[in-house]
Amino acid sequence: MYFPYFATYMAVGIALAIAAFVWALKNGQFTDQQRARFLPLEDDAGAGEVKRSRMGRLEILALGFLACAGLAASAAVLVFALVSF
């Protein structure tokens, strides 16, 4: 009885994870692995205050929306599964 809802929920989650991974590959997130090893050792004392751009604020809002949408979808699946029982 719960299997179709659970399978759909898992398929959507896996599809989103694969889409995020492909996006990261296309944008070069994994290209410079040799430099990434030494990033924790670098001193950023010379770095000044970072000004947030409009795009940065939009990304934060989009991530917040996606997090809320994911929680709402989880709650909806739970409620629907309990109500249809």
Main attributes?
85 residues, mainly alpha, 0% strand, elongated
Topology:
Layout: H1 3-26, H2 33-36, H3 54-83
Low-confidence runs: none
* Shape verdict: elongated
Overall average residue pLDDT: 83
From N to C, what is the helix and strand string? Answer: HHH
- In percent, how helical is the residue content? 55-70%
Kindly provide the radius of gyration, computed on alpha-carbon positions and rounded to a whole number of angstroms: 20 Å
Number of helices: 3
Largest sheet: none
Percentage beta strand: under 5%
Distance between the termini: 8 Å
Count of β-strands: 0
Structural class: mainly alpha
Describe this structure in words.
- It is a single chain.
- The protein has helices spanning 3-26, 33-36, 54-83.
- 68% of the residues lie in helices and 0% in strands.
- It is built from three helices and no strands.
- By secondary structure, it is mostly helical.
Describe what is shown at a glance.
The chain has 85 residues and is mostly helical. Helices cover 68% and strands 0% of the residues.
